[in-house]
Each structure stands twice: as C-alpha cells, then as structure tokens.
Design brief:
Strand order of the largest sheet: 6-5-4-7-11
Largest sheet: 5 strands, mixed
Shape: globular
Strand content: 15-25%
Number of strands: 16
Structural class: alpha/beta
Radius of gyration: 22 Å
C-alpha cells in the first residue's frame, strides 16, 4: 500500500478529493477500520476528523454545528472550520434553520450533501451480463444499465463502455467508480485470477481509471457485498456473508475490519471439500467442493431432476455442507452472524435451517448456540451497493 493504514481511534488517511482521479484510501487494506469513532493525535487529526464529521452526518442526518461538536468530541472552533471546508468542497450543505423550540436564535442545520455527488457501481459477477448503476451517497439506485457478456469480443471494453454510459447518466459529479468482480483481487485492484472471465494478473482498476479519469476501486464481489450489509443492512462488526450464485464465495468483517488474507484470497470457501463421502465433481477437478453442492446451477439441476418429495432433502444436504464449511470459521473467529446472499427460493427455509443445525452440532454450544443465519434483505443489488460503500469509504472515510 502506498498510504498508511487506519487504526480505529489512533491514525488516519487524508481522504483524497474526487478530482485527484485516484483512490489512495484502500477499503481492503490491513488494519483498515471502516468507521472512525473518536478523535486522534494532532499529526493525524485533520483527515481523521474530516471523515468523523462526514461519518456522523451520514448516519445521524442533519444537525447543528453545536450538535456535531457534542457528537464527535471536537471543539466548536474545529467543527466550524471543518464544516466550512466541507461546504466549500461540495460534500456538506446548510439545510436551513432548525424549528424554534425555545429562547434564542434557532441553529443552522448542516448535512451531507446527499444529492451533490453520485457513485457508479458495477457488478461483474453475472454469468450472462454485467450490470451497473448510478447510486446516491445513501446507496439508492437512480439509474441502471446492463451489458451482455455472451458474444462480447472484449470483456474489458464491455466494462469500460458500461461504466462510461453510467457516468453520462449520473447528472452530477461522480465521486468514484466501485467494481465488484469474481476472482481474487489484490489491494491495488489487480485481478490475480478470475477463471470465469479469463483474467490473470489484470489491472482492472488502472484500466478503468485511465479510460474514465475518475477514482476507481475494485474488489471481489463477495467482499463488496459484505460492505453493503454492514453499511446498509444493519450487520454488526463481526459478520460473514456467503454469496451464492454461479460460484460460492464469502466476505468477512472481523472487529469491523475487512479480512483479505495473506494472498488476498480470504473468503474463497467455494473449493473447500465438505465431507469425505464423495460427491459431485467440481469444475476445479476436485470431488465434493462446497461449490459443487451449493452453486446455483448445480443445486438447481439436482432439484430439477428430483421428485417433489426429494427436494427438501437436497436443500437440507446442501445446507449441511455449508454448515460443515462454516463451522471452523465460526469456531476460530467467533462470528455471531452469517448472512446469505443469493436466490431466496433456494437458500431460505430448509437449507438455512440445516446450516444452523450443523453449525450448532459442530461448534462449542456454550458460545456458539446463538449464531444467527439470515438472508440479506438487499436482494440482487447487494454488490452494486457494496461497490458504492467502497467509494464512500475510499473517498470520504464513510461507511
């Protein structure tokens, strides 16, 4: 990494301005806490406290400068200075006077200028098409576009054209472009391997940045999804998100820090062998990988070939295999919340129930009986919204 790491409450990265054209504040760096919670040492204070003000407004909404001082622990002079700077930069706006409720002059309210910028999010995880959206700073989608993958002569040009189209539809300054992609992605946005896309060692982040002259952040799609669940889905600081689609992957936050692993492959659970009783042959050549049991094409095919009375058993079997794969993670990291993202008709119900039962049978009951397994409520937009969080965090220090 080219910039120092962020430790909660002790240091900071000065968030770059959008016009700089780079995203130097990495979301998936080591020790990178997503949310700032307190003021820090003077030599690190300005960038951190700037993010702290934006973070407070992002989650709590409009408030007076005095309210901001109380919420952040910063002095009124510091708040006045930071708010003036953020208004000049176009990230904060005055919203009018608070309704009078007593003697004295009503306070002027300030808030994040939620309509002042847009974010472009791309989801490259689909097998048939790439999808993209223009999002507000609150993660609301205001425009959508898609590009077919089948028959595309050049996938990179397809991605660039999709992003360019979305930027043109933003009708506001674009804060940055976030991309969730299958494969293993390093902390500079280089796709180390994405077999389904045929990319090995491909610097997608630089390619998009050079083509569009905007800040760009690229991450694995499941890692992007867990950020969406953390920021918009109410997940806690310790959460594992399992994304089930064409393949199976997961994203993990531990103590509010994204986990990436020594080789940037944390969360690659799809090719963990789940059981010694044989099973279907996986596309990787091994027998009995989790992906061979749980991926949507494989699971749908088995259900389609089964009788009505057999279908619940197939779903429960897949849920048990998922529980086998997740039990060591729960045991080692003490994760208390597991979120499933994928087709509700497959994952919710018998499959999720079997996952919980298996987790409870294979972990220490005294501590892990309360593990919660639930479906995300964000549907198929979860990667797009996670891509928006990547930009918010990288550019503004907000998540």
């Amino acid at each position: 990494m080219s910039s120092p790491d962020v430790q909660r409450g002790s240091s900071t990265i000065e968030p770059p301005h959008p016009q700089q054209g780079t995203a130097s504040s990495r979301v998936f760096g080591p020790g990178r806490a997503l949310r700032q919670g307190a003021k820090v040492l003077p030599e690190h204070a300005r960038g951190h406290n700037r993010s702290l003000v934006l973070q407070t407004l992002f989650h709590q909404g409009a408030m007076s400068r005095a309210d901001l001082a109380r919420e952040t622990g910063l002095t009124r002079v510091t708040i006045s200075d930071l708010v003036a700077e953020l208004i000049a930069d176009g990230f904060v706006a005055e919203m009018g006077m608070r309704e009078a409720s007593g003697p004295g002059k009503p306070a002027m309210l300030v808030d994040l200028d939620r309509d002042g910028h847009r974010i472009v999010g791309l989801d490259l995880s689909g097998s048939d098409e790439f999808i993209g959206a223009v999002l507000t700073l609150d993660g609301d989608i205001v425009a959508r576009r898609s590009a077919p993958v089948a028959g595309a002569q050049d996938l990179v040009e397809t991605v660039v054209a999709l992003a360019r189209d979305l930027v043109a539809q933003a009708h506001a300054p674009v804060l940055g472009i976030g991309v969730g992609t299958p494969g293993v992605v390093d902390d500079h946005g280089v796709i180390l391997t994405a077999p389904n896309l045929g990319w090995v060692g491909f610097d997608l982040e630089s390619a998009l940045r050079e083509a569009l002259s905007l800040p760009v952040l690229v991450a694995n799609d499941a890692n992007a999804a867990v950020l969406a669940e953390y920021t918009f889905g109410g997940a806690g600081d310790d959460v594992l998100l399992v994304k089930v689609g064409r393949g199976v992957g997961s994203g993990l936050l531990a103590a509010a820090q994204p986990m990436r692993g020594a080789h940037f492959a944390a969360g690659e659970i799809g090719h963990v062998t789940v059981g010694t009783d044989g099973g279907p042959v996986c596309v990787c050549g091994k027998v009995g990988c989790l992906e061979a049991w749980l991926a949507v094409p494989a699971l749908t095919a088995r259900i389609g070939a089964a009788s009505a009375s057999e279908r619940e058993g197939i779903l429960r079997d897949a849920g048990e295999r998922l529980g086998i794969a997740l039990a060591p993670i729960v045991g080692v990291l003490d994760v208390s919340e597991i979120v499933l993202s994928g087709p509700t008709e497959l994952l919710d119900g018998p499959l999720a129930e079997a996952t919980v039962e298996t987790l409870r049978a294979r972990t220490l009951a005294e501590f892990h009986d309360g593990v919660r397994v639930r479906m995300t409520e964000q549907g198929q937009d979860i990667v797009l919204r996670g891509a928006a969080v990547m930009v918010l965090s990288g550019q503004l220090g907000v998540s």
